[in-house]
Amino acid sequence: MFISVNEITETIHMIQSEHLDIRTVTMGISLLDCIRSNPRDTADAIYDKIASEAGRLVPECESIERELGIPIVNKRISITPAALLIGKGTRDDAVYLAKQLERAAQNVGVNFIGGYSALVHKGYTDSDRVLIESVPEALYETSRVCSSVNLATTKAGINMDAVRDMGLLIKRAAELTAASGGSACARLVVFANAPEDNPFMAGAFHGVGEPGTVINVGVSGPGVVKAAIEKVRGRDFTVLAEEIKRTAFKITRMGQLVASEAASRLGKEFGIVDLSLAPTPAVGDSVARILEEMGLEICGAHGTTAALALLNDAVKKGGVMASSHVGGLSGAFIPVSEDEGMINAVRCGALSLEKLEAMTCVCSVGLDMIVVPGDTPASTISAIIADEISIGVVNNKTTAVRIIPAPGLVEGDTVNFGGLLGEGPVMRVNPGRSDDFIARGGRIPAPIHSLRN
Amino acid sequence: MNKAVVSILGADRIGIIAAVSGYLADNNINILDISQTIMEEMFTMVTMVDLSGTPKPFDEIYDDMKKLGDKLGVTIQIQKTEIFDSMHKI
């Protein structure tokens, strides 16, 4: 037999016992050709285009799942940033578009549609402003629409007006959905250096440099990595890194196979595989537990940043050879509420907001699914965003913030978002005020090393 | 050739191989290779089959295998070989 029995049982074991899955197949769709003279007509044309482009996405993915025997947890859609689509529309027109996106997502059976977005790293256009101001209401009126705003790039610096505004809008979105712990904020993320081909929510959008329609895939597999490194307990870091690389290669090959199968069956272009370790709240599917397996008593203990740096680098090195095109966020994710080990570490007092910020310097994305007290001032949220975004801008990497100021809740309470979004313990926020800093507005200039030409 | 892997995992009992190979023969599915062992007290059988002779669609075979597994008290799964090739071969 060309494939050995051990290899076959290893693959089956990874899927059945170690939560190996494809986290998302995301279809990116350009909607620029839907723009009409009237914004309502645009929204209706968008509904029709999504229905025709993505109509077969879910059934085709389900048949790939059955034939290959690997679960595809999410099927999703990302679209051209909506701020580019609304033209001279009003805030009501923007919310109407959000509702049409919701209907379209429901119609084709995807659980999230991303791209209710604006790219404002250097400043606002009128339509950017209209769209961003509509975000809280748009999220309140929908359940599948995801929104993202790019606030900064290494090339452009940081739009601190937008950082200030997002603090206020995040608070507003939380208040509108107070009954569910501010859950709308779980579908809202702000970025520095946002990638145009990210398949993961809430930050997925279909950039203007992308082809018409494209298939991007995000893989997963923290449980597989943890099981693999259990076999090298006590060995040195070279052995540890090699083991992670080998495992990441195997995981990513699954992603590559599913991506090319999905693209060919749907007759669309294959975009990228995102080399990611994405946790879920399920036991045995945690990134924090990998760090602990490396020899830390608990995630957040000193040594955690180094452990995460090694993990993130080895995942990329292993994955990059397994895929023909790599993109998106690519790296280990550390969303607190979506990771059983992170939740445990926060509850034990071992993991703070400050430590998480340090960890984001060496892994993909940033402060993700962080729940903070409902009375956290908007200016403090803006300041948390400014800190995180600076890390991305200065280090020439993507960083993001997805933060939930849970109305009425205080440190130590818990919010349950359900499903993959998990449950978040309310974390301590530094009480020092940042109001005057945030009130300055304007732009933080691009760092000197942005001048690479 | 349209190859797939049928894997059977579970507690050992008399008649597992007979039942599975009987089903394959009845549906004109050719067995290319069989490997069977007891791994950590678990009955483990891996069969490479060729589906090109069967009139049954893959989805039906998939469902039949699940039902047969339930009847025998083991897990039976059929998967296209691409998943194993891509994970283990460069």
Largest sheet of chain A: 12 strands, mixed
CATH class of chain B: Alpha Beta
Helix percent band of chain A = 40-55%
Helix and strand run of chain B:
EHEEHEH
Number of strands of chain A: 16
Low-confidence stretches of chain A: none
CATH architecture annotation of chain A: Alpha-Beta Barrel
* Biggest interface pair, counts: A-B, 24 and 28 residues
What is the averaged pLDDT score of chain A?
96
Helix-strand makeup class of chain B:
alpha+beta
Number of helices of chain B: 3
Domain unit count of chain B: 1
Oligomer: heterodimer
Number of strands of chain B: 4
Percentage of residues in DSSP E strands of chain B: 35-45%
| Domain module count of chain A | 1
SSE string of chain A, helices as H and strands as E: HEHHEHEEHEEHEEHHEEHHEHHEHEEEHE
Estimate the mean pLDDT confidence of chain B. Answer: 92
Annotate the secondary structure layout:
The complex is a heterodimer of chains A (453) and B (90).
Chain A: H1 5-17, E1 22-29, H2 39-54, H3 57-68, E2 72-79, H4 91-108, E3 112-114, E4 118-119, H5 126-141, E5 145-153, E6 157-159, H6 160-176, E7 188-192, E8 213-219, H7 222-230, H8 237-266, E9 269-274, E10 276-277, H9 287-293, H10 304-320, E11 331-332, H11 340-347, H12 353-359, E12 367-373, H13 378-395, E13 399-406, E14 414-416, E15 423-425, H14 435-439, E16 443-444
Parallel strand pairs in A: 1-2, 2-3, 3-5, 4-5, 5-7, 8-9, 10-11, 12-13
Antiparallel strand pairs in A: 1-8, 5-6, 6-16, 7-13, 14-15
Helix pairs in contact in A: 2-4, 3-8, 4-5, 5-6, 6-13, 7-8, 7-9, 8-10
Chain B: E1 3-10, H1 16-26, E2 30-39, E3 42-50, H2 58-72, E4 74-80, H3 82-88
Structure explained in plain terms:
- Chain A has 453 residues and is α/β, with parallel strands linked by helices.
- Chain A has a single domain, classed as Anaerobic Ribonucleotide-triphosphate Reductase Large Chain (Alpha-Beta Barrel), CATH 3.20.70.
- Chain A has 14 helices and 16 strands.
- Chain A has helices at 5-17, 39-54, 57-68, 91-108, 126-141, 160-176, 222-230, 237-266, 287-293, 304-320, 340-347, 353-359, 378-395, 435-439; strands at 22-29, 72-79, 112-114, 118-119, 145-153, 157-159, 188-192, 213-219, 269-274, 276-277, 331-332, 367-373, 399-406, 414-416, 423-425, 443-444.
- In chain A, the strands form 3 sheets. In chain A, strands 1, 2, 3, 4, 5, 6, 7, 8, 9, 12, 13 and 16 form a 12-stranded mixed β-sheet that branches. A two-stranded parallel ribbon of chain A has the order 10-11.
- In chain A, α2 (39-54) packs parallel to α4 and α7 (222-230) packs parallel to α9 (287-293).
- The longest helix of chain A has 30 residues, at 237-266.
- The relative contact order of chain A is 0.13.
- The model of chain A has no long low-confidence stretch (mean pLDDT 96).
- The longest helix of chain B has 15 residues, at 58-72.
- The model of chain B has no long low-confidence stretch (mean pLDDT 92).
- Chain B has a 4-stranded antiparallel β-sheet, sandwiched between helices.
- Chain B has a single domain, classed as Alpha-Beta Plaits (2-Layer Sandwich), CATH 3.30.70.
- Chain B is of the alpha+beta class and 90 residues long.
- Chain B is built from 3 helices and 4 strands; from the N terminus they run βαββαβα.
- Chain B has helices at 16-26, 58-72, 82-88, and strands spanning 3-10, 30-39, 42-50, 74-80.
